Amino acid sequence: xxxYQNSTDFRHDQAGCLGVLITNLGTPDAPTPKALRRYLxxxxxxxxxxxxxxxxxxxxxxxxxxxxxxxxAARAYQTVWSEAGSPLLQFSRQQxxxxxxxxxxxxxxxxxxxxxxxxxxxxxxxxxxxxxxxxARRILVLPLxxxxxxxxxxxxxxxxxAVLRRWRWVPDLRFVSxxxxxxxxxxALANSIREHRAAHGDADRLLFSFHGIPKRYLLxxxxxxxxxxxxxxxxxxxLGLEAxxxxxxxxxxFGREE
Length: 258
Known about the structure:
By secondary structure, the chain is α/β, with parallel strands linked by helices. The chain folds into 2 domains: about 15-175, Rossmann fold; about 185-250, Rossmann fold (3-Layer(aba) Sandwich). Helices cover about 45% and strands about 15% of the residues. The radius of gyration is 20 Å and the shape is globular. About 20% of the residues are buried. The mean pLDDT is about 95.
């Protein structure tokens, strides 16, 4: 039996298309302790996210964290959950639809889009399979992480590679690893802030809040911390803010490690 992904009805005269896989962190399937336990088990077991030796981390994760944290996290998710599901999935779907419309108008050839979450559903494997079934011969992987981190961008590439290693025909692949200083991205952030201020008024200080990673990862060469500072600085410059009018902070420290 073949160990590779086959297409029993494959047509060799079929013209290929461009595929774009949009990826994001992920979301539990429901705001319940059971769904959160399944989601957190996948997320926190990723060695890119937690680099603690596996035997020790397995005991901590399954003996302590997954017994306590799912119920607490479920209550937090319930406060933002809607009929459409989690906000992250809802907004990611909207971004997928908007990008599909833009690319179909801008590109001369056929293009197929799919969404894949690093953890939870729809998975990266499901997204890639959608593109394979559509006949994608070239695939652009676009993680929605403007700042590179091994915990996010590299983890996404790990998941993509694990799927493609099982395909018989591996497509041409391009991976967007980061874009913290891309002019279009900076301008989009600045415009969003201007629109909010026009509708709700100005404030004394603009607070940039990024998700944190352990300081140890920075010291080991992860550029995420520096790229967050670069993005904040460029947005502040685009808005013409003085140094005392903006501040950068990091949130969601996990455990006692700095």
